[in-house]
Design a protein that fits this description.
It is a single chain. The protein is α+β, with helices and mostly antiparallel strands. It has one domain. It has two helices and five strands. The protein has helices at 8-58, 219-222; strands at 129-132, 161-165, 175-176, 204-209, 214-218. A five-stranded mixed sheet has the order 3-1-2-4-5. The chain is elongated and about 80 Å long.
């Protein structure tokens, strides 16, 4: 007699094989998704860096401020609760970079649940990226904003980091303060993209350089003074 249906045992075997294949494929799929998010993050940084350079070209070579505290009219990003800094669109870089807040947020960053807070405002910073101050900054002092500088003052622009994708654990404002600068809160480069390459990507993150190119670098690389001081 010819059979037209699977037996219970055969069905269980098929289901088991499918479950095994799904279990094997899930890590690969998640890695592929994270690689795509890392690529989008790099694209965001490149777009913002290009906007910052366009701003500098329109302002006699002056770069915007780093976006620390208290906020200054020339800061690259507006993010605090005091007008006009409470409206992202008022920031000098917003329209140069397309005007979309999403561009200023890494797709792998759960920005709506940042827990680190700025010392004076007690507000979380709702974006993912920080700008280099190009000067020694001390977080122990009341003010963390840097004095704006001109692009011609910065040597070896292709080696100088302009923006970093920052770790949410130490992300308190728009100003990047890496070691060996002193202070109570020093920003680390994010390693949220490690899912795209396993342990090989641990402690590595996206950075944009002053010439607008983007690289995926280690924290130790980012913390070398030659890459963040003018």
């Amino acid at each position: 007699m010819r059979r037209n249906a699977f037996t219970l045992v055969e069905l269980l075997v098929v289901i088991g094989v499918i479950a095994l294949l799904v279990a094997l494929l899930m890590p690969a799929l998640e890695s592929a998704r994270e690689s795509a998010r890392r690529t989008q993050c790099a694209s965001n940084l490149r777009q913002i860096a290009t906007g910052i350079i366009a701003y500098a070209q329109d302002h006699s070579g002056w770069l915007p401020g780093a976006g620390g505290e208290p906020q200054q009219p020339w800061d690259w990003i507006y993010w605090t609760a005091v007008p006009p800094y409470d409206d992202f669109r008022n920031g000098p870089i917003a329209h140069y970079a397309g005007g979309d807040p999403a561009v200023f947020r890494c797709p792998s960053d759960d920005w709506a649940h940042h827990t680190a807070m700025a010392q004076s405002t007690r507000l979380p910073y709702p974006y993912s990226y920080q700008m280099n101050c190009f000067a020694p900054i001390d977080r122990f002092q009341c003010c963390t904003y840097g004095v704006p500088c001109k692009t011609i003052q910065i040597r070896r622009s292709s080696e100088k980091i302009l923006l970093i994708d920052a770790s949410e654990a130490t992300l308190v404002d728009g100003a990047w303060v890496p070691p060996p600068n002193s202070g109570s809160s020093l920003e680390d480069l994010s390693d949220r993209h490690r899912g795209g390459g396993g342990e090989a990507d641990a402690h590595r993150g996206n950075v944009a350089f002053l010439d607008t190119h983007v690289e995926f670098v280690t924290r130790s690389f980012a913390h070398e003074p030659g890459h963040f001081l003018s």
